[in-house]
Amino acid sequence: MKYFIFSSLGLMTWPIMEYLLHRFVGHVLRTNTLFKKEHTRHHAETNYFAPLGYKILAAIPVSLIMMSLMTFILNSWEFGFAFNLGFLSMFSVYEWVHWSFHAKAPKTQLGLRLRKHHFYHHFHNPKVNHGVTTTFIDKISNTYIKPGIIKVPKNIILPWLIEKDGQSIKPEYLDHFQLR
To answer: Which among 11, 62, 106, 140 could disulfide-bond with 112, CB atoms 3.0 to 4.6 Å apart, if both were Cys?
Structure first.
């Protein structure tokens, strides 16, 4: 049961890290890191995602730091490992969710709402709505804007959003998205 608790804490810690990395390393800090470079490219080319190898290389030192820190705090390498397992599991979920927002149609209202949150960040104001898997951290950090209709640039192709003609929004999304 204790391992489950620490693994769950790792799961819950990821959205905080997601927000902090995205907001500060991706947008606020004037850094010249691989993360910043890849993130900037993702904003410029919305359907571009950093190669998996980059993500694994970035995850290794973060994982080692998190495991070491949690092992020290919890005074148990087993609990540190359980925490890290939860943290890395949620990182993997985040990667899949983020990719699916760009590549797949939403299946639920929550999926649609989170996509609108994310695409408001992409297409309207990159200084707000930094969360991808949750809006909670944006709300408590005062960086949340409730998105209305998302205006998607015509040169951006989100395959699930656009009709086969490439010129119009699918009818089921007309209340949520427009081409500009």
So the answer is: 106
